[in-house]
Design brief:
Chain lengths: 411, 311
Amino acid sequence: MKGSSRLIAFLGIIVIMAGVFAWTTPGLVNDIRLGLDLKGGFEVLYEASPLEGGEKVTPSSLKETSKSLEKRIDAQGIAEPEITTEGSNRIRVKLAGVTNEDEVRDMLKKPVNLTFRDPQGNVVLNGTDFVQNGAGLQRDEFGNPIVTIKLKDAKKFEDVTTKLTGQTMSIYLDEELLSAPRVNYPISGGTAQISGSYTTEEATKLKDTINLGALPLKLTEKYTQSVGAKLGQQSLHQTVEAGLIGSGIILVLLIALFRIPGVVAGITVVSYVWLLLLVFNLMNATLTLPGIAAFVLGVGMAVDANIIMYERIKEEIRSGKSLLSSLKSGSKNSLRTIMDANITNIIASVVLYVIGNGAIRGFALTMIFSILVSILTNIFFSRFLIHLLIRSNVFKKPSYYGVKEAEIRAL
Amino acid sequence: MHYSDKFHTKIRFDFIKHQKKFFGASILLVLLGIVSLLVFQLNLGVDFKAGTHMDIEVGAPVTKEQAAETLDKLGYSDIELTLGGASNQRVSVRFDEVLEQTKVSEIMSTFKSQYGDQVTEEVNVVSPDMARELGGKTIYAVIIASIAIMIYVMIRFEWRFALAANIAILYDAFVVVALFSIFRLEVNLPFIAAVLTTIGYSINDKIVIFDRIRENLRFSKQKNKEQLAELVNASLWQTMARNIYTVLTVLIVAVSLYLFGSESIKLFALAKIIGLASGAYSSVCIASPLWLMLRGDKSKPGKTAKAPVAS
């Protein structure tokens, strides 16, 4: 490739990138999922304990409880709830854009209610009638899954089944109908089998639900964060503005200090921001307020890679080497130092991710993404661009690189 | 200022000659920090102390008395409250007790009826066992992160470099904690994020300088105390520009977050600013002279790595 064609390639890349960024950025920004600290909402960490003492919280009962929370939230029409179980007895719920927070929180705290109802809708049995962890899964002679249940009071169950013989007995969790088995004859002895054309999965779910209903979990709020929508928006605007101001100053400073390479650094910083936005979209990650802070700090740290390399190149030019060999030794010598910086930062961020709660995890995750993205843009892409420029032979004077002629030593 | 012909470097200030002053000043700061931590301790926020924290954005300037009076009417007297925002339109209140949601709603509706519907809030409630757990986890995190980074530096350098760098980064983390204690600034989870990333970031300058010292060591034969001091000074000045620039860029964004960012990110930004400044100082004034002290006056060349690379 001749020098001039390299310059054309460089300019072409810049024009195409500018076009792509201008075209896609508004969409990327709009699609970013904002955390509840930026658009309002609340986060609650619940600790689950059995309502009536005794038994331990089992992993399946915790999972069922979180599913039942999800159903209640869905029933309210709240968009994009995030419900996760943590450890052995915790459930974290994050809801954004909720206007009736008090009501929703009251509703979530209520323990699940398992009922068996007759065709008229009258409750004939409820969760407390069942032996804790008494429901099990078995297979009939054809290998079809059946759910076995155990009741505390055999007499009561016999009475109920006698009354409902020939009718259905519907099983509800809260207001959701799970199954409506038919009672064929009075059942004595306090144990029964529910058979039907269940898949193993359905049968397992029914079993877990009955066990959960027999031992409903009490949810206690251990940690809550609640942010008003207006406050969230205000935080978003202010912090994004702060980030833009800081980034703008950095761009000006880079060009003032490093001239031509400074322009390249500016281009790579812009592509870093764009790529990080893209990564956030693709991963469907949630941007939190500390996340924006990490994003903004990331801009400052991403340019470090450029600065370390450019300063090294400047030094090589001063020592009397040619531009091209300065570039080669400069970028080679600086790579390891730059990677060191990235690795130590990743170590700190990973530790932070492991210990942190919601918003801090957002910070740590953004930090990790931002380091990985900046390795791409501010090391590799930056090198590629500066290679094109130097080898285009257009910018030969040392002053283009921020070096004064007088500083250059003879070899 | 003098010119080191051997290293082609202008030495504008002899850091090694003045090392006692730097060590003295830093030891003094550490002692002050220890005293402050023992006497005042840290001003722990709800994340670590349990209770309720409310940030109420009133939307109009308020005075402490007005806000206190509103709270007093609801039966909360002698409550710790601070004002924030550009024109004191934000009230931050901390309750030592875990407030029920109904109480929080009551406070909010009182503020709304008094100042209008634009009142908006952030409320954090942390139960005592959660605060204890978070505190414990945090201490582990800082220890684990420090150890992981130390191990990395030890793999990367011989032990004297590693020890000097690690003392310096722990010093940086401590300075942030100490200043927060001395100035009674609130310590919450974002503060821990700032301290941990300070540890991760402040090691970078040290690596740049030590890489350079190591590179220069390869090219200079005799190593008595004076020559080593000159070598360290030259290495410091050769890397000075990039160290200043790299810290400066991050400092610029941290300062703009502090000045223009939202209220709840300000203390985080402040902790970052302190950590960055301390990191820049300790790389030059603590870590490098410390390495020289550990290296001692040996005529034999020290162990250097097989493939020194620097930038």
